[in-house]
Amino acid sequence: MKKIILTMLLSMVALSVLGTDGAEASSPRQVEVLLNANKLSFPDAKPFQDSQGSVMVPIRFVSEALGGKISYSKSGGKTIVEIRKGDDLVKMTVGQTSAQVNGKAKDYGTKVILKQNRTFVPLRLVSEGLGEKVEWDKVGRWVWIGEKTFRNTDDAEFKLRPLSDFKAYMKANIFFNKVASDEPYNGIKIVQANQLPIKLGDGEIIYDIRLENVKGMDYIVTRSSERNTPVFFMVKDDFVKFRYGLDSAFVNNKDGTATNYYPVTSTSDVFQNGKYNQYYDWTKFTLSNADYIAFSTHQPKDYLVVIVNPFK
Question: How far is CA 272 from the centre of its chain?
C-alpha cells in the first residue's frame, strides 16, 4: 500500500510539470525481421522499404533462417537465384518482377534487386514462395515471419537473482517490494534489449524500447501491450528515478499495442524514498547514470523484471 501511494504521488508531480503537448512523429526506423518472434541479425545489408512502399528483405539470410538452401547461377548475362525448402522450389531472376514458384509464374510487382552485393526480394515472395506466414507491422516497421511465440521471463533462460545482488541500487527499498503488497520481491530477472519482444510472466508484452528527443526533451519510449506501465531507473548508490508514462503523449496503435513516453528527467526526483528534498538538483540526472530500467508491474507478481540500459 505504501508503494502504491508513493507512486501515485510521483506520477501526479511528473504529469503536472511535463505539460500536455503530444509527441511528434519521429523519423522512420530501421525495418526489422522477426522469425517466430525472435529478431534476425543482418550483418551488412539491412531490410528496407522502397519508394513504392514494398518491403524488401535480403533473401539469403531469411531463407537460411527458414531452413532453405539458396544457389546462384548465370544465364544470358542475368543472375538466377534458386531457393529450395522441402518440396518448394522458387526461381527468380535479378531485375525481374516475376518468379517461378513450384513451376508456376507469379508476378510480385517489384523487381528482385542486387544491393550491397545482396539479393533483395519483396516480402510477399517469402510468404507465397516459401509457404511462410508473413505479416507487415507498420507501427514497429517489423516483418513477422512464422508464429508470435514470445520469449517469456518465466522461461528457464532468465535466471532469478537475489535482491542482495542489487543492494547498491536499493536506497529506496519500497520500489523493490511487490506492487500489490509491502513484501519484497523474491528476486530480479535481467533482460537484454536484443531479447525483445518479451512477455513479462502472465503480464504484458514489451515489444520495443528506444530513446527519442521531443521538443528538446529526452524520453524513453516503449511499445507494449499495456498503457503507461510505470518504470524506474536503477542508479548505483542513489535513489531510483521513478517514471510514469505521459498520458498526453500516449498512442493507441489500434493493433493491441500502445506507445508510451517516459521523461528521462523529472521534478519528481526531489521525492526520495517518500521524503521531499528541496536541495536535490533533479536536472543533473542523465540516462547514462542508470544501469537498469525496471518495469513496475502487477505481473509477474513475485519478481521484478529489469532491462539492461541500452542507452549508456
Answer: 30
Residue with cell 503530444: 22
Structural Rg of the chain based on CA atoms: 23
What pTM does this model have?
A: 0.87
Q: How far apart are CA 36 and CA 53, in angstroms?
A: 24
Question: At residue 149, what is the residue type?
Answer: T
Class of domain 38-145: alpha beta
Please, what is the Cα angle at 267 between 264 and 273, to 5 degrees? 95
Q: In a 10 Å sphere around its CB, with 0-12 CB exposed, 13-18 middle and 19+ buried, how is residue 212 labelled?
A: middle
> Cα–chain-centroid distance for residue 242?
21
What is the end-to-end Cα distance of the chain in Å, rounded? 33
| pLDDT value, residue 128 | 81
Contact 15, 247 (CB under 8 A): yes
Half-sphere exposure of 181 (CA within 13 A, CB side): 8
CA dihedral over 258, 221, 299, 296, signed as positive or negative: negative
Q: How do residues 130-173 score in pLDDT, each as one tens digit?
A: 888 999 999 999 999 999 999 999 999 999 999 999 999 999 88
**Three-state DSSP class for residue 279:** coil
Cα–Cα distance for residue pair 202/253, rounded to 1 Å: 22
Residue for cell digits 524506474? 232
Positive or negative, the CA dihedral 170, 173, 174, 177 is positive
What one-character DSSP code corresponds to residue 226? S
Cell for 165? 545482488
CB 36 within 8 A of CB 150: no
Strands in 118-122's sheet, in edge-to-edge order, are 48-49, 55-58, 118-122, 113-115
> What are the structural domain ranges in the chain?
2-27+151-308, 38-145
Using CA atoms, how far apart are residues 260 and 205, in angstroms rounded to an integer?
Answer: 13
